[in-house]
């Protein structure tokens, strides 16, 4: 479990330790233990995409039709400030995502694999003193140059946060798949 537990993002070609008789998998909705509303639904899409990408198992929407079931809990996905400027405003955020996952053989009613604290950490920058002319603040006001210099670009920050979230979810889904397929 060292590879998945560390969340390092490295994957390698390992022997497939999934039961040879397993052909279908149901991905249950992960429990959300975070303060981020709806993150379990977003993560489920990333997890299903990762499973489909490998073409080893067929995804099914009904657990009764599945040989295997993947379930788990999203333990964390909140950003936190990693660096501050001279006046205490965040300039860099870390986004740390962590999940616990369990792969169960539904036919034998047996846990095949359990991964705990499967993580990914991504950084993104806040961009103070940058203004997009499409920002709502810019469009509603007649700014002078001194006013514009005081604005921050929330659109850039939101975009960067979204990219960091996508990268974190992709990496965690890859690590979950690597763990369950290789038995780590």
Overview features:
7-stranded mixed sheet; 5 helices; Double Stranded RNA Binding Domain; 184 residues; alpha/beta; elongated; disordered N terminus
What does this protein look like?
Helix 2 (39-54) crosses helix 5 (154-182). A hairpin with a 4-residue loop joins strand 6 and strand 7. The protein has 5 helices and 7 strands; from the N terminus they run H-E-E-H-E-E-E-E-E-H-H-H. Residues 1-14 and 129-135 have low confidence and may be disordered. The protein is elongated, with a radius of gyration of 21 Å. The protein has a single domain, classed as 2-Layer Sandwich (Double Stranded RNA Binding Domain), CATH 3.30.160.150. 27% of the residues are buried. It is an alpha/beta fold. The protein has helices at 2-6, 39-54, 136-140, 145-150, 154-182; strands spanning 24-27, 31-32, 58-59, 68-76, 79-84, 90-105, 110-125. Strands 1, 2, 3, 4, 5, 6 and 7 form a 7-stranded mixed β-sheet that branches.
């Amino acid at each position: 479990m060292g590879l998945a537990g560390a969340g390092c993002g490295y994957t390698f070609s390992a022997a497939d330790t999934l039961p040879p008789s397993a052909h279908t998998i149901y991905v249950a909705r992960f429990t959300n233990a975070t303060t981020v509303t709806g993150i379990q639904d977003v993560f489920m899409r990333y997890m299903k995409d990762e499973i489909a990408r490998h073409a080893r198992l067929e995804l099914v929407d009904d657990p009764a039709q599945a040989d295997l079931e993947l379930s788990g809990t999203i333990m964390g996905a909140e950003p936190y400030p990693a660096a501050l400027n001279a006046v205490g405003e965040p300039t860099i955020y870390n986004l740390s995502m962590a999940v616990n996952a369990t792969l169960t053989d539904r036919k034998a009613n047996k846990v095949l694999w359990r991964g705990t604290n499967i993580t990914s950490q991504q950084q993104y920058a806040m961009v103070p003193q940058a203004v997009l002319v499409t920002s709502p603040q810019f469009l509603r006001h007649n700014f002078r140059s001194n006013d514009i210099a005081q604005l921050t670009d929330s659109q850039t920050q939101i975009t960067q946060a979204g990219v960091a979230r996508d990268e974190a979810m992709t990496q965690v889904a890859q690590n979950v798949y690597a763990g369950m397929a290789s038995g780590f």
